[in-house]
């Protein structure tokens, strides 16, 4: 019974992992508090909820790619209020 339960959990994990790859959504596993205001480009951000190994984060675009930011960072809160467009990412 224990082996079947473990096998079931492994299969569920693999299905969720593949689902994320197919959707190509970011999954932040760590965030920064560092002020990156000057590097943020565009007028949208993504709000990631905490799910499995993904942490709660605000995801901003930069010229170098996407950056995962702690939603409690004061600069991120201000930037979030000034954004014109808000897109939510609900990571399963």
UniProtKB/TrEMBL annotation:
What InterPro entries does the entry give? Chemokine_IL8-like_dom (IPR001811), Interleukin_8-like_sf (IPR036048)
User: Which keywords describe this protein according to UniProt?
Assistant: Cytokine, Membrane, Transmembrane, Transmembrane helix
- Which cellular components does GO assign to this protein? extracellular space
* TM stretches of this protein: 6-23
| Pfam family, any one | IL8
Q: Where is the Chemokine interleukin-8-like domain?
A: 27-77
For molecular function, the Gene Ontology terms on record are:
chemokine activity
What's any GO biological process attached to this entry? Answer: immune response
This one is known as Chemokine interleukin-8-like domain-containing protein
Which organism was this protein described from? Kryptolebias marmoratus (Mangrove killifish)
């Amino acid at each position: 019974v224990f082996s079947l339960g473990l096998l079931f959990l492994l299969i569920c994990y693999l299905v969720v992992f593949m689902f994320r790859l197919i959707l190509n959504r970011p999954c932040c596993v760590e965030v920064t508090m560092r002020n990156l205001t000057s590097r943020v480009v565009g007028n949208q951000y993504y709000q990631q909820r905490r799910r499995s190994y993904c942490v709660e984060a605000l995801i901003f675009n930069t010229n170098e790619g996407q950056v995962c930011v702690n939603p409690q960072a004061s600069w991120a809160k201000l930037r979030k209020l000034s954004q014109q467009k808000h897109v939510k990412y609900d990571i399963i």
